[in-house]
Design a protein that fits this description.
The complex is a heterodimer.
Chain A lengths: L9 H9 L19 H8 L9 H7 L6 E3 H4 L33 E4 L3 E5 L5 E5 L8 E4 L5 H7 L15 H10 L4 E5 L4 H7 L1 H10 L1 H25 L4 E5 L3 E2 L2 E2 L3 H21 L4 E5 L8 H6 L4 E3 L9 H8 L5 E5 L1 H6 L1 H9 L2 H7 L2 E5 L9 H14 L8
Parallel strand pairs in A: 1-6, 6-7, 7-10, 10-11, 12-13
Antiparallel strand pairs in A: 2-3, 3-4, 4-5, 8-9
Chain B lengths: L1 H13 L2 H13 L4 H22 L4 H22 L8 E7 L7 H12 L2 E5 L6 H10 L4 E5 L3 H4 L2 H10 L7 E5 L5 H7 L3 E2 L3 H13 L1
Parallel strand pairs in B: 1-2, 1-3, 3-4, 4-5
Helix pairs in contact in B: 1-2, 1-3, 1-4, 2-4, 3-4, 4-5, 5-10, 6-8
The chains are: A alpha/beta, B alpha/beta.
Amino acid sequence: MSQDKTSMPNREKFKAFCHGERLGEVPLYSWFHRYWTDTPEEWIKKGAPKEIGTGKGFREYFQLDHLHGLEEIVSEINRADLKNDATVQGPGRYHPTPPIVPVFPLKTLREDERHRVETTYSGAIVEVSKEFPWRMPKYLEYPVKDWATWKEYKKRLDPYTPERWPKDWWSFVEKRNKEDVPTMLLMAGFFGVLREWTGVERLLYMFYDEPKLVEDMMDQVLYLILGVARRVVKDMRIEAIRFWEDMAYRSGPLISPDMVRKFMAPRYKQVTDFMRSHGVDIIHIDSDGNIHELIPIWLECGINFPWPFEIAAGNDPVAMRKKYGKNLIIGGGIDKKALIAGKEATKQEVMSKVPYLVKTGGYFPGLDHVIPPDVPFENFKYFINLLREINGMPKLPE
Amino acid sequence: MADILKAIAQGVEKGDDQKVVELVTQAVKSGIPALQVLDKGLVPGIQALGRCFKEGTAYLPEVLIATRAMNRGVEVLKPHLANVKVQSKGTVVIGTVEGDMHDIGKNLVRLMLESNGFTVDDLGNDVLPDTFVSAVKSKPVDIVAMSALLTMTMTNMPRVIEALKQAGLRDKVKIMIGGAPITREFANEIGAEGFAEDCVSAVDEALKLVKK
């Protein structure tokens, strides 16, 4: 979609960017310009073209390359247990799909004028704002509380449950393999999903009170990941995998680096060694918050591509590139608040980071998290045009 | 006596709640005044942990287990403190602002403030400006603490400040804010006196604010 300086198949082009080739060129991939559900809705309400209301329309309007997140297997659509669910309407629209099969049914338990209490796919009970249901809810109850609840829950985390997989696997594989679209297999992580099942506070206590339970949960996730990965790499072309963790907050990691090394690193290593033995060396990780202390551990474990480098949390992608060089592929890192502030701030933010980062290694520019609705459409378009200008590409049509 | 108080402090710092309960019980039985066990045993323990957190040798799990150990020790002391006036460090009204349901950070701040001697009135999440105002009207309050996770909801913080102004209450309280997108600059911009990056620095900031 974005016009290449040199012609190259898309899958190869993505890998080249990640491997620190095509220096000086700005990769423009939709994956790094994802948005809150209400962002395009707000933009359209204020006069933006209606076509941006779908993922494909958004991609085409901003002329972004497609990086396919392979959610079909470990979550989301094409899973038999979700087939007939209204995943694009009602609560299914804003409750993320966990990697469990089958998911729990969605039910409204009670409501008042401003809030609704409902169950989620993961079996939690949450309170959502009726006005902004896609914003992070308040968790009232989590499904995993102890060994007994975990033993029941883990039954849903079997990689070989038939409903986890598309019914017509081979036609699914053929279709995907034929497409020249770089593909990233989306994985659970060893912290992120655990906190979704137990709650952050309970999980943090568990590291001291029930370390064996934590390890059992992590082992089940490992079993799930490797089971899924084995089948996928055998049959399908994938270029990258992604762990979802969200294991940091604005001041640093939610658990100590020592705990990450003890509990998570050996399991990360098993996954990344397996992937590398099958030619997949692009290992993406999604964690909000300040990740400075986590990056060196991730690199030791073969994880080389963090996102989103939240600026308000003190992340500095330029400093990280200087420290780790091309070994670190960087995604995001553009302060969303600059785009909220206006075009001048956007330009300053982009020009202080993007030219240096694309000249020195793999860098995929994007905001420092998904695009919130308070970023004006015009400013986002201006941002994309700035990136295109660095590439010597013409502006997007008016 | 000094030894057992030191051991209590160490137990809190390590988050060893069973040890703390055992030692606090022993200390009270041996005749050490409850207030002294609190001030010279439990409090120095949680303060030491706070210093470790700031130095980067302790993280949130360690903060949580230390706080739990402290609270279990306080539970043992409570019957013995019934006739003793324990001075609150100040009263804090806390909540996530309108539109924000995310309350993990706010809950950790509440926990740390309570463990460090503050009285905390937790208004919960998605709190309307008027609810903050009513809470400040209903009792003497030193600090209004607000949290926001999103850039879309942080803009509701100045609305709370404005509502307090409208109600003639702004000068009666200090405002402290925090959350993922919040910076000191933003706090200055909206006229909040305090800003905290995490639950431990929130205690330091609150202490500074009540002294002002």
